[in-house]
Amino acid sequence: MKTKLLIVAAALPLAACISFGAKPPPSLLTLEATAAPAVGADQNSAKARSITIQVPSTPTAIAGARVPVQATPTTIAYVKDAQWAEPPARLFARLLSDTVSARGLVVLSTVQSIGDPSSTLAGELRRFGLDATSREAIVTYDAALTRAGKDTVEKHRFEARVPVATIDATSAGPALSQAANQVAGEVATWVAAN
């Protein structure tokens, strides 16, 4: 019994030193849509065009939770204490869905689109971070649209740049949210055309 107590007592100070991951930042970043469907608004794919929006692919540098900073043309760092609540590609896809839906299109999930001849929007989120040289938040999205009933793919690159005073966690979230909303608005206009 004494031996067991000694082992437990010896392990207690060690337990305070063990860490199973980096210390989380005080808060997590997310995106806020400036255009979204009204609460309680009904949408029906029989009365309006529908679209399925896929989560975009991303390069590894922006696939995780950290906010990248292009320090030089060939080096990337990350903003200290800045971390997304979930991967940026998912945040951007949700913001894009809200923006497109606010423009009158019915946004369907992949499962819902099986029985509905909807358009499909896919793409790659190529940049979603800060540039230290230009002091800008940059969002670049390469969209690929297949319209309902068509076999061809339309491609278009969208980009927004928003100035940031400092490269830090406080400035990163709002600037990237503003840039993402600008890109989403331009994509929604493009998708709604024709």
From TrEMBL:
Pfam families in alphabetical order: ABC_trans_aux
Signal peptide region: 1-21
Keywords for the protein's UniProt record, in alphabetical order: Lipoprotein, Signal
Organism superkingdom: Bacteria
Domain ABC-type transport auxiliary lipoprotein component span(s) in chain numbering: 31-188
Protein name: ABC-type transport auxiliary lipoprotein family protein
